Amino acid sequence: MSIKQQTNKLLNNRFGPVFLVTALLCSISLLTRLALLVYSASSVDWSVLNLIKIFTIGLFYDLAAASFAVIPIVIYLWLLPSKWYNRKFSRALLFIYFFFVVFSLIFNAISEWFFWEEFSVRYNFIAVDYLVYTTEVIGNIRQSYPINSILLALVLLTAAVIYLLRPYITASTTSKSSFGKRTKIALILLCVPVFTYFCVSHKLKYLSKNQYVNELSGNGMYDFGFAFWNNQLDYNTFYKTLPIKRAGSILNHLLQQDTSLAFKNTSRKIANAGAENKMNVVLISVESLSAEFLGTFGNTQHITPQLDSLAKEGLLFNNLYASGTRTVRGLEALSLCIPPTPGQSIVKRPDNKNLFTLGSIFRSKGYNSRFIYGGYGYFDNMNEFFSNNGYEVTDRSSLQDSEIHYSNIWGVADEDLFTLSLRELDKDYKNKKPFFAQIMTVSNHRPYTYPEGRIDIPSHTGREGAVKYTDYAIGKFIREAKQKPWFSNTLFVIVADHCASSAGKVELPVDKYHIPMIFYSPGHIAPGKFEKLTAQIDIGPTILGYLNFSYDSKFFGQDVFKIKDGDERAFISTYQSLGYIKNDKLVILDPNKKAVTYKPNFTTGSAATLPADQQLINEAISNYQMASYLYQKGLYGFESKKR
User: Fold this and answer.
1) How far is CA 518 from CA 93, 372, 419, 526, in A?
2) If we measure between CA atoms, which residue out of 423, 520, 517, 415 comes closest to residue 472?
3) Which of 170, 317, 357, 436 is deepest in the core (most CB within 10 A)?
4) pTM
């Protein structure tokens, strides 16, 4: 029997539509995979073995995704009596169903293209996370792409596909089958997704050392479902662990405290001799500011003239690495000074009130601690988190319409955010309160729009324009702050929340986590460069150390001005891969209880596998395991919680 005859036999069967849906899903997934492969050609490790992996494992996951996609049509074909199946309404329902299927598959393919363009991965935890904030995400899409034209094209393309498939869609309507026979077939088909759910491993695609090969081997729809059901990762369940007392002892040693202290607590006295320096502190957290954007780090596009100038006038941290790949990870690192725990950021988790934060410390010292944001603070749970952890929150709702020069779906233009910030800081000064303000910018984010006439790059033309506009707004803010009576007694800390992209050929490309930071305070801080390795979680303790504060600390971060040579380390992560950098080595902990040591290239991001460094692995485990343990047990509170 020829292939055509076999195909016709399948389509003419009562469950022919199931075969057709599966074929459509696999075909469109194959085309998507080919398109993404061509787009990422320069980053893919091209070998025959890798190509086999991409397409064979990819087909396997396509079929796994199809097993779930066909559930509705299997149930329909099973339960609908034969005498009704050949009627007009049944044919109409089939056409409607297939229109929805084809439209969804093409829409998904286009969505995957844009997601890959932004993150260079299949759907993951980020895609699931964004679904919570449909207003912002849909608004961002509408402002970034010609969505109406895209949808119209999708409808027309779908209609064309349905027209071509019309004889195959209705081919099965003339078939006859008894309910008993349909039940046997339906139960077999419905057992496949059950088997897939319990027996198919998501790890199968991670067989190559090239991250692009691994991602291309997946299926976006299947990965989305996996991320949806696994958006919280319990450290002890998925990662390598040590006996908790040993992990606590190692961590105490790393924190340079008495190793006889209770294993389950990082509490320690930070004692600095002399008087405390009650300077105001303005911490500017800049959206997606990779170090590679700054001329100071070799960029030749001249898009950060203000920051480059401030870098020369202040103390530039040359070797700083972001904790994660999203704003909530940056906010977590800056406020909690704790390594990134797997899964969701603590900023968005339940039971995250009264934690030990930088804002709490400043408030205990008599400061007014503020979090100021250019968007609406309900996004990413910012209002809830900061208002319950020692900060007073101010967001765009505090601005009148007449005060806003420009806004997009993410928030007001950065210059308007800084106008709002100056107003709030003036209030504190007037009330004779020292202040700590953490300001979160938004303009350097797709759709990359901002007020016209500020810089020489038109709005909505790409990332470089958004970077230069944010740079302009920061420069304007500093100039206006210089006119304030509180300026001379203020420390400005300018740092990125994370990099613009975390994509690379390897799992955790270290170069993609490199971010800039500047300590700026004329008359207090001499121009210079700080070369030691610095973790984003070290920023808070380093600020407190500069102010000569004495306090009881639970922070995992340390004052890098005082850390011993050779003890410097940094933490980098995705939502599931946990990295630990120390002594020019990188340990990566993965959720299959795997720990691997690498020699990373800090310029290109590549990494070569090294023999296991057990001491370094144990240090990595101790930090991440204890961070998860203390949070879960309620022991990372400003006053320890009991559960």
Assistant:
1) 62, 19, 21, 12
2) 415
3) 357
4) 0.78
Alpha carbons 396 and 404: distance in angstroms, whole number: 9
Instruction: Provide the β-strand partners of residue 321.
Output: 514, 535
Strand bridging mode 578-582 / 570-573: antiparallel
> Residue 408: phi, psi to the nearest 5?
-130, -165
Q: How far apart are CA 434 and CA 571, in angstroms?
A: 31
CA distance 332 to 314: 25
Quick: pLDDT tens for 267-287: 889 999 999 999 999 999 999
- What does the radius of gyration of the chain's CA atoms come to, in whole angstroms? 28
Peptide bond into 447 cis (omega under 30): yes
For residues 435 and 102, what is the distance between their CA atoms, to the nearest angstrom?
Answer: 56
Cα–Cα distances in angstroms (integers) from residue 559 to residues 252, 327, 553, 616, in the given order: 15, 23, 11, 21
| N residues, the chain | 643
Q: Where are the alpha helices (DSSP H) in 217-285?
A: 220-229, 235-238, 244-254
Measure the CA–CA gap between 30 and 51, rounded to whole angstroms. Answer: 13
As beta bridge partners, residue 587 has 580, 597
Cβ proximity of 417 and 372 under 8 Å? yes
pLDDT tens profile 7-48 = 667 777 889 999 999 999 999 999 999 999 999 998 899 999
What are the φ and ψ backbone dihedral angles of 407, each rounded to 5 degrees?
Answer: -150, 155
Distance between CA atoms of residues 408 and 447, nearest Å: 8
Q: Which two tokens stand for residue 420?
A: 């709002």
Rounded CA-CA distance 217/57 in Å is 6
Beta strands in 383-489, from DSSP E residues, in sequence order: 392-394, 407-408, 411-412, 435-440
